[in-house]
């Protein structure tokens, strides 16, 4: 069901997980049902104030309102830090004519200068706007990055219980004790025409463990609960003020032996600008992702071979992002 407009008569109803609830059994039950059903759910009362969320959105908008030549000075590097222009990313080459009609900005975990861990993929110094261009911008984003990671860890503990694991399973040093955590600010121009292969973001599943998504109030995100259906049925996910929309990534699907879903999703524009912030949470570089003992049996053997997190992520980013050499003309 293709929908290309602001009206959404096909809106998905998602479970809502209250992180402040003392009833952990209810939270686990709601989350487990969501993970089995569609891989998407809301998280509320997560501890990040609405006032601060509004400030982060305001600062994000300030960046994207800068002239293109200013943004191109902060072009992403090989470590996926910095600005990604419109059409830089191509998520669904089978359906898209060009790339995604969105621009973004990557911010990762920053380690001290000289730390040997900086040599690893997805680690290293962030790229920051000059303080005189965007005063306070860096401080706002660093604070949000840190607070969002705590939310992600809280969600991961509930996921662990839903998979019949120890509550701190994902807190181990090789997992979220030393994670790859990437904040991506996003701005959509509102351009979409599925009949012409034009999307705000092409259909894809996320790569890692979980994603936290904060959005403004403009409709655009769609999910497909059954990617093998013919035709595919797409449902909108309604924005929920102050909430994170959480979805599962491919690595968690591999870990759970496909019991939990990494769900296909995309973004359609409806003529309105749209801002969102995606926080991608992955385990450490050297974490070996292999079928969990609680998710396999003689009748249900592992469906995927073990793979290191960094190996999997590096290949996925390479497959979907433009070669940086195409931007050389902007660097002269």
From TrEMBL:
<dbReference type="GO" id="GO:0046872">
    <property type="term" value="F:metal ion binding"/>
</dbReference>
<dbReference type="InterPro" id="IPR044861">
    <property type="entry name" value="IPNS-like_FE2OG_OXY"/>
</dbReference>
<comment type="similarity">
    <text>Belongs to the iron/ascorbate-dependent oxidoreductase family.</text>
</comment>
<keyword id="KW-0479">Metal-binding</keyword>
<keyword id="KW-0560">Oxidoreductase</keyword>
<protein>
    <recommendedName>
        <fullName>Fe2OG dioxygenase domain-containing protein</fullName>
    </recommendedName>
</protein>
<dbReference type="Pfam" id="PF03171">
    <property type="entry name" value="2OG-FeII_Oxy"/>
</dbReference>
<feature type="domain" description="Fe2OG dioxygenase">
    <location>
        <begin position="179"/>
        <end position="283"/>
    </location>
</feature>
<dbReference type="InterPro" id="IPR005123">
    <property type="entry name" value="Oxoglu/Fe-dep_dioxygenase_dom"/>
</dbReference>
<keyword id="KW-0408">Iron</keyword>
<dbReference type="Pfam" id="PF14226">
    <property type="entry name" value="DIOX_N"/>
</dbReference>
<dbReference type="InterPro" id="IPR027443">
    <property type="entry name" value="IPNS-like_sf"/>
</dbReference>
<dbReference type="GO" id="GO:0051213">
    <property type="term" value="F:dioxygenase activity"/>
</dbReference>
<dbReference type="InterPro" id="IPR026992">
    <property type="entry name" value="DIOX_N"/>
</dbReference>
